[in-house]
Design goal:
- One of its GO terms (molecular function) is hydrolase activity, hydrolyzing O-glycosyl compounds.
- Keywords: Hydrolase.
- It holds the Pfam family Glyco_hydro_1.
- This is Glycoside hydrolase family 1.
- By secondary structure, the protein is an alpha/beta fold.
- The protein has two domains: about 400 residues, TIM Barrel (Alpha-Beta Barrel); about 30 residues.
- Helices cover about 45% and strands about 15% of the residues.
- The strands form six sheets. It has an eight-stranded parallel beta barrel, surrounded by five helices. The chain has a three-stranded mixed sheet with strand order 11-13-14. It has a two-stranded antiparallel ribbon with strand order 1-19.
- A hairpin with a 2-residue loop joins strand 6 and strand 7.
- The chain starts with a strand and ends with a helix.
Amino acid sequence: MVSQFMFATGIENSNPTIQGGSFRQDELAKCGHYQHWRTDFDLVEQLGIHFLRYGPPIHTTFLGEGKYDWSFADETFGELRKRDIVPIVDLCHFGVPDWIGNFQNPDFPTLFAEYAHAFAKRFPWVQLYTPVNEMYVCAEFSALYGWWNEQLRSDVAFVNALKHIVKANVLAMSAILEVRPNALFIQSESSEYFHAENPAAIKPAEILNAKRFLSLDLNYGRRVDSEMYEYLMDNGMSRDEYHFFMGHNLKQYCIMGNDYYQTNEHRVSADGSTRGSGEIFGYHVITTQYHDRYRLPVMHTETNLWQGPNGDEAVNWLWKEWANVLRVRNDGVPMVGFTWYSLTDQVDWDSALRENNGTVNPLGLCDLNRQIRPVGQAYKQLIDDWRQVLPAQSVCLEVPIIMPSESEQPWAYQKQNDAKEARQNVTNTVSKNNQADA
């Protein structure tokens, strides 16, 4: 077992549908991972990275209730285990299988929990998970902006998608813990801020700054602000549904993952409309706000920037984000990891995957020819420089990671048994308290 700062990257596996559900934006296909996955894992090793945000394509793996095609997952996860690369398993990244439909389907949470349970049984050596990626963004882009999946544009559709997505995440965590009692969950959620551009915009900005916390409030069982409670109730969430979230607090198994890009900050006009502001506060200020709210260890789970005409734009952004991580850590927040997302360039994210243009976005540590970009070389050097310094000097939680190569050791099984016993004790205590209250 090791306790280390988690320097990570990810392999982009977004797969929402567009064009009324007729076309799926499968980033694993567009970025060539299905053909070049062994080379991609080689690159992870060459860059000195031990942690990889990665997941099987849900739409080709989850074929129906109790029906799975594990062939690609068996190959790829078997290889990750052989190489002793620790996966942070991303089970749902912006899309669901065609037979489920979209995030308006009330059956999605239970079905997804079954899928998560089946994955955990298939790969019991896996410890780290992001069950549903960017829950807020997924609901927003699918049901409020009308860009993906159900392509709806209403507060009712948004609340419906949000409650299904977060419930799916909560049920998946419980299902995984049944199989792997010492599993850890790293939420990857967009960290946002809304700036009022004039006094008349203060109220709409305040509402948006409260709304940005909804997914994590529900996921962590934190009571939402009164105005947000009314918003949820007015747009279709029942009291019983709300109480479900308040009664399923799995916060003790969680690390709060914050994603930050230049697009995460917004200017708000008096009519409530928004547009990008660029970086104003930055990662340090906004992450501190999230940490003050949830008091959890933090991992920077996504960032990137286009490599521009000078060739050093992404390198400079990497340095800036890392400086922000160190500042957050120096302020006493337990920082446990950092991620440049993703390993390779992406395709069509310039249109937020709304269009199928085949446009290559130069955002990766490597290009799509699998050549390391300047930011990849800079990240490798950053990891080499800081890997041994951080455990001794940083204010960070020591995350008890069992490496894949250690998963069948007797002491590793004992760790799981200890975690199972501790979880059962908590469950028994909660049950007794509930009986006493009744």
